[in-house]
């Protein structure tokens, strides 16, 4: 199967920009906030509406595509064959509800399990980061430099707050060895920070739609994205993700084995 990446980029960019307009229009009315698995696991009417919008756009443009999105009722994927779109209609829902900033809309596109293209929109700043193994790293269609391959001691590290507090998989040790930990609260915004060279990596427990867009973008610039034992990410399962530039990634993996 071949997909024209330039066309895909134009389409996905337009869908994410349209999502932004829709989100701000919907915010003119009060938000409806519900909990899912617990009090910190939120979903709003805007998450649901935006997933419906994105899925309808993808279906219309790519009727053959399989779609895995966070919200909604579509069946969970059981294989990665063919063209697959991973959709997070709002990443960082807690930030969206509490801050109206530091949240993203994001899409990752894969063919037979291999990354093709990723796009993450920082909604509040209106900054769209895109990239893929055969698509340049760009911010709003302008090229970005490749992030520096810093040692862990020279870079900031994005971390999941719960994992840091509990020192799960030695995340506190990783944070102590780094130039400092940062907790943004949105996987998409963390991957943007890495792509912009603002932090050297990110460690969290993520669902497939949280990691797929950033993994595809990172394939452009040598970002290492693995499990803590350095094994490859299986995009059918949630799990701990270590995403970092090569030098820092090797150091983090060493610390996690310790
Ligand atoms: C969450 C955010 C958060 C990460 C969670 C994700 P959501 O996404 O990315 O930073 O720590 O694991 O579930 O639920 O707001 O789309
Ligand atoms: Ca969620
Ligand atoms: Ca998410
Ligand atoms: Ca979400």
Automatic annotation (TrEMBL):
Task: Tell me where the transmembrane regions lie.
Answer: none
What the entry lists under SUPFAM superfamilies is as follows: Carbohydrate phosphatase
Q: Please list the coiled coil stretches.
A: none
A Pfam short name: Inositol_P
| Leader peptide range in chain numbering | none
- Alphabetized Gene3D superfamilies for the sequence: 3.40.190.80, Fructose-1,6-Bisphosphatase, subunit A, domain 1
Q: Which UniProt keywords apply?
A: Hydrolase, Magnesium, Metal-binding
Instruction: Give the protein's recorded name.
Output: Inositol monophosphatase family protein
């Amino acid at each position: 199967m071949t997909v024209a990446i330039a066309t895909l980029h134009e389409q996905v960019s337009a869908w994410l920009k349209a999502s932004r307009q829709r989100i701000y229009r919907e915010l003119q009315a009060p938000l409806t906030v519900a909990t899912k698995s617990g009090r910190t696991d939120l979903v709003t009417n805007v998450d649901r509406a935006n997933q419906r919008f994105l899925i309808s756009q993808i279906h219309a443009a790519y009727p053959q595509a399989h779609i895995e999105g966070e919200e909604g009722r579509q069946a969970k994927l059981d294989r990665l064959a063919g063209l697959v779109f991973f959709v997070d209609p709002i990443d960082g829902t807690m930030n969206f509800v509490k801050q109206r900033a530091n949240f993203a809309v994001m899409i990752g596109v894969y063919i037979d399990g291999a990354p093709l293209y990723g796009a993450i929109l920082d909604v509040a700043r209106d900054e769209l980061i895109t990239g893929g193994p055969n698509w340049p790293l760009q911010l709003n269609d302008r090229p970005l430099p490749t992030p520096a391959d810093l040692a862990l001691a020279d870079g900031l590290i994005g971390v999941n707050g719960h994992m840091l507090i509990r020192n799960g998989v030695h995340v506190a040790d990783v944070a102590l060895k780094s130039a400092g930990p940062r907790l943004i609260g949105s996987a998409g915004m963390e991957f943007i920070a890495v792509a912009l060279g603002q932090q050297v990596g990110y460690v969290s427990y993520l669902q497939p739609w949280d990691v797929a867009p950033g993994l595809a973008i990172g394939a452009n610039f040598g970002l290492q994205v693995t499990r803590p034992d350095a094994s490859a990410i299986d995009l059918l399962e949630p799990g701990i993700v270590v995403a970092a530039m090569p030098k820092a990634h090797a150091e983090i993996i060493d610390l996690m084995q310790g």
